[in-house]
Every structure is written in C-alpha cells, then in structure tokens.
Amino acid sequence: VLAAAMVYQVGQCLLVTNQNLYQLARYGAAGVWSDALYGLSAEIDQVHASQVVVIDWGMLNGIVTLHRGRLPVYTLSDDFIWQNFNADQRNYYRDYLDRGVWIGHTPKYRLFPAVNDRVVQSTEEAGYRKEPIKTVQDRNGREVFEMFRFVRRQ
Question: Is the pTM of this model over 0.85?
Fold first, then answer.
C-alpha cells in the first residue's frame, strides 16, 4: 500500500511539473523575468551605446552578465529630481542625458511606474525630451523593454 501511494504521489508531481513546463514554454515567464533580455542585449550592441542607464528593476544584472561586465551600466532611482540638484550634480547627470541610451520596461511591465514617470518629468524640466529608439519583444511577441534617448529641446 505504501509503495502504491508513493507511485501515485510521484506521478502527480510529474504531471504538475509537466504542466508548469508546458505553460512556461507556451506562454513565457510572468512579469519581468523574460527572454526578451537576450534581444535587449543584442539591441544594445546594435546601437553601440557608450553607456546604458536603467530606470527599472529586473534587468541590470542580466545586462551586466550578458555583456560580461564590459558595458558601463548605471541605474537611476526616484531621487533623480533635476530641480533639487546643484550645478555640479546637474553637470554630472547631463552627461547621462546627452550620451546615455536609457532602458526601461514598457508600461505593462513596469515594476515602479512612479520612478519612470518622475525621471521622465525631471528630464523634461531640464529641457530634454524622450526620443524612442526601439521596443524589444519576447519570443511571444509581447513588448517588454523600451530603449530611448533624451534629446535637448531646441
């Protein structure tokens, strides 16, 4: 009886594991864990970015790993508020704005939408506008990442 119960339990576990693997293969990972990271890494190579600025959680370590630590990658948080910066801080961050390729999640996948909104608003107050470069899709065609630059307004 004990052996039969164990065979039944093992069979149930295998069926559940098989169902989970099927769903992962068919629909991809949920949330920010996405195979679109590989496409994003390739796109970073295509735009020949001298520096990459990340403004959402969940991609920094993947980008650093896929580029073997050779790409200068920076992260910004919601403390990026242009109005509060002194002249030295503005000059420091102006370099990010002028030269950096920025990466974030598309609105559907943002973990911290308020951070993204504050960064974009702050850069607009500094006289820049957001210029999209490309969106990156996962293997199921869902747009997960967006690449963009900030360009000075004339």
Answer: no
